[in-house]
Amino acid sequence: MSEHHNHDSDYTAPTVDVDHGKLRRIAFLAAIGGTIAFVALGLVNLAAYGTTEGTHDHGQEHGGLRDFFLTYQVGFIYWLSLPVGGMTLLLLSYLTSASWGLVLRRFFQAATRTWPMMAVLFAPVAASLFMGEESSFWWAVEAKDIDFVKENQTAIEEIAHKQHLYLNWPGFLVRATVIFTIFGLIMRGIKKWSPKAEDEGNEVYKNKLLMLGGPGVVAWALLFTVGITDWVMSVEPTWASTMFPVVAGLNCLLTAFAFCTFLFYTIVGKNQTVLDIVKDKFRIDIGSLTLGFTMIWSYASFCQFMLIWAGNIPEEIGYYKRRLNGGWEYMAYSLMIIHWFLPFIILLFRQVKTDPQRMRKLTMMLLAICAIDVIWWIVPSYPHINGYLHVPMAIAAVVGIGGIWGLSFTKELAKSNILPKKDTAFLANWGHH
After folding, report:
1. Percent helix, percent strand, percent coil in the chain, to nearest 5
2. Is the C-alpha dihedral spanning 41, 47, 49, 50 positive or negative?
3. Residue 418, helix vs strand vs coil
4. For the chain, which residues make up each domain, given as ranges?
5. Exposed/middle/buried for 279, CB within 10 Å: 0-12, 13-18, 19+?
6. Is 411's pLDDT higher than 90?
7. By CB count within 10 A, which of 86, 178, 201, 268 is most buried?
8. Mean pLDDT, to the nearest integer, of 79-85?
């Protein structure tokens, strides 16, 4: 590239050649392989354990059919992070004019345009409400029929009161509809205004995106809290945590950021034209924000554990008792090491942040541990007596749903150059004036 660039108004980002066909093939193979593995493991699990019967611990015996819904929910929640996290990161980048927002903008935008696909993929989660004792939501059963409170009239009355006020299928579906609608409207605004703002340099539409940023982030904070409470926290009987939406929100943002960073460095590879534009300074910004997300996630996770430990309330401590026994404690150790300690140490080094290949490997590791985090949230909520297939089922669900989502994502990503035509001028001209 030339040492100096033209004025911003005359600048147009170079076209970056991307093998979208290869990305689609990977997504297709993941969709087919993951779905087949999920169904096959689910059928084996169902044949081995059948449907739910009897009682055990806080809930029902190992139910093979319930595991279908429980592990599917893992895959759905994990990939929900991409459009929701992508939307939020876009809004933050519009508010702050951050360099990382320019570098990763096309990936965030392509993720938000998969929102209709997520609405379709939500159907099995909603269907679980009507499966009785096989539902992944314990409160979907009439209070008097819930095994772990039978013959405890006080507990039955308390749960029936909660079901009447909040934990009921009409409220669940109404809240989900509101979430999908409002997020959809925000994403539609981004889709409509961003081409004119970023590719044509239209100041009017840039201001519209800027004005959308503040209310959009507030809407995300409120609606994400409602959604994660319904779709994840309510799976765990009797448990509530004011810190959990913070933990889940940070995991959502980190997943989206790591995925888009991984894909950017995978696509760019050793493309010197792009690397000359995305200079070391901007790559350091991406690495520093990755470090920031991992540190804040660690802080929020520790605060949740500390508050529950200090409170020592029976309704709350069961959450950690189930996740620190029966083999789940090894997932907890891996979260401490891979989700916090390793990224903290590795991302202190400038050489890592500026090296596309090292960042690619690091973000791939973070994507895997974020998936393990979601499994740890959901699957231990119910006992799995002498069973083990629920973990590979959850992994297969993540792969299969990821492949289905990826087909929609790659289609959207192919619609535009990975660098905005006009806004990239800031990156290209940085340091020259």
Report:
1. 75, 0, 20
2. positive
3. coil
4. 24-419
5. middle
6. yes
7. 86
8. 98
